[in-house]
Amino acid sequence: MDDLHFIACDAMVGAPRQPLTGGGSSVEDLEQEMAHLHISAAIVRHRFSLECTPYLGNQILMDETKNHSNLIPAWVLTPDGDEPDYDIAVTLQRMRTVGIKMAWICPKRHSFSVESWCSGDMYAALADARVPLLLDWNGQTPGELHHICAEFPELRVIILNPSREGRDRLLFPLLKHHPNLYLCLCPVYSVHEGFRYLYNHFGASRWVFGTGYPEAEGGVSITGLLYAGLPDHVVRAVAIENIERLLSEVR
Amino acid sequence: MTGENDLFVQKALAGQPIDHCLVIDAHGHLGENPTFPIIDTDPASVVASMDRIGIDALWVSALPAIYGGYAERGNAIVETAIHRYPQRLFGYTVVDIGYPDRVIPTLEHGQRAGFTGIKIYSPIGNVPAPTYASPNYEPLYNFADVHHLPILAHTWGSELDDLEPWIKRYPNVNILLAHTGSAQLEKYIRFGREYPNVFLELCYSLSPRGFVELLVREGLADKVVWGSDTVFMSATQQIGRVLFAKISPEDKEKILGLNAKRALYTETT
Ligand SMILES: [Zn+2]
């Protein structure tokens, strides 16, 4: 597989309050890392949205990724939406108008419930537009995740930092019940025979690739995928094709 | 350094085994795990994964030997495996350190069965167990000293204080500190520099970026040993921390195999 390259789905750019010890976290640093790891495109979130204010973070993300066609910005959302309307449907419309095809939420940091009484309108709007939603495995309980996927079966949910606990007694039933639940296979997913088990039990189409930028050594995900003993077409699906398909289906 | 001319990076990106140098995995396990179900504990799956990556040898202890009061039952799993794959798998004996009268008999059994190292484990979670300061460890260190056995010590930063007196007292016993970088990194760096018999083992699920580079910058290229924690974690992943590190190929060779060869006394086993 000489021409293999990757799309990283979990990058986060932006300056923390103090520099990270292991390397940079700017758009330029990310692009250097992408060249090192043969990553042709990356879905990027902005740290300011997580650590400071959500919607100003989206604006900074748009400024910093402008003129970088290999970077695909993902907007953070809250169920109440952005000013001046504070209507999630309007916020989502604005997001789609500027070409954003991916969303993420940080329910703990931004103080809302992921259950439908609080976030249901947001899920409905995302499902309707087929915009995938990035959720960190640790951002909600497995029970809450089950609730989201059961109530909004059309919503495409991509789990970042999925549990690495083997044949996980919480994660695997969720995968079994919810065909629109996807995993981002990133550095923390360090599971002996994990990739092969996922493929053998749930097929090739529900896994996307991540490098844990900027905190993790992204090469770990490359060796994890390429030494897993998977057929070439599965490697390509995980590396690039699955996320390309999800992005192409956004309406 | 982009790695374009680095054979390790080239082979990793092609999914080809690292077959141009010695690769030793100093930290692996077999058997079931208490807290979550491991997908495949069959040594055959471990050896198949070693073949794909290009790992020549793996040193293992049994997870069931570590956690309860039945070390012999766990060690038996490793004993079967090292006899099944004598060129590939090497065993660490685990003892029931809470029962001092069992320490020497278990180590003697391990010696007869062909185990070539000892794995020690500090208390985990809220299950009470002796700390590394316990005098129960004295016969174990004596045995390691007499029989030339390396010791792999599970650490998470705080145990290093309890280990230091043993490290000083037994300068001929090589001690590998597992999970370097998990906490209190300064101490690992100091130990690695100060004690010729200390080696820093790498496995850590977070795989922090720039970490291998940092250890090399700290002058520890001759003291870092690669380990994966397979089957508790995945060797296919952990190998990427060294293969893609922005360090010289010469240092990668040391970290992947040459240092472990020294640390584990493989010249003599
Ligand atoms: Zn271990």
What does this protein structure show overall?
The complex is a heterodimer of chains A (251) and B (269). Chain A is of the alpha/beta class and 251 residues long. Chain A has one domain (6-248): Metal-dependent hydrolases (TIM Barrel). Chain A has helices at 27-36, 47-51, 54-65, 88-97, 116-129, 142-151, 171-177, 194-202, 219-226, 232-248; strands at 6-13, 39-46, 71-73, 75-76, 103-104, 133-136, 157-160, 181-185, 207-209. In chain A, the strands form 2 sheets. A 6-stranded parallel β-sheet of chain A has the order 4-5-6-7-8-9. In chain A, strands 1-2-3 form a 3-stranded parallel β-sheet. Chain B is of the alpha/beta class. Chain B has a single domain, classed as Alpha-Beta Barrel (TIM Barrel), CATH 3.20.20. Chain B contains 11 helices and 8 strands. Chain B has helices spanning 7-14, 43-53, 63-67, 71-84, 100-113, 138-147, 160-169, 185-194, 211-217, 235-243, 249-263; strands spanning 24-30, 57-62, 89-93, 117-120, 151-153, 175-177, 198-201, 224-225. Chain B has an 8-stranded parallel β-sheet with strand order 1-2-3-4-5-6-7-8. Chain B is globular. The mean pLDDT of chain B is 96. At the A-B interface, helix 8 and helix 9 of A face helix 1, helix 2, helix 9 and helix 10 of B. The site of zinc ion has 4 residues of chain B, from strand 1.
Summary keywords:
heterodimer, A: 251 residues, alpha/beta, TIM Barrel, 6-stranded parallel β-sheet, 3-stranded parallel β-sheet, 10 helices, B: 269 residues, 11 helices, 13% strand, binds zinc ion
Give a quick summary of the entry.
Chain A has helices at 27-36, 47-51, 54-65, 88-97, 116-129, 142-151, 171-177, 194-202, 219-226, 232-248; strands spanning 6-13, 39-46, 71-73, 75-76, 103-104, 133-136, 157-160, 181-185, 207-209. Chain A contains ten helices and nine strands. Chain B has helices at 7-14, 43-53, 63-67, 71-84, 100-113, 138-147, 160-169, 185-194, 211-217, 235-243, 249-263; strands at 24-30, 57-62, 89-93, 117-120, 151-153, 175-177, 198-201, 224-225.
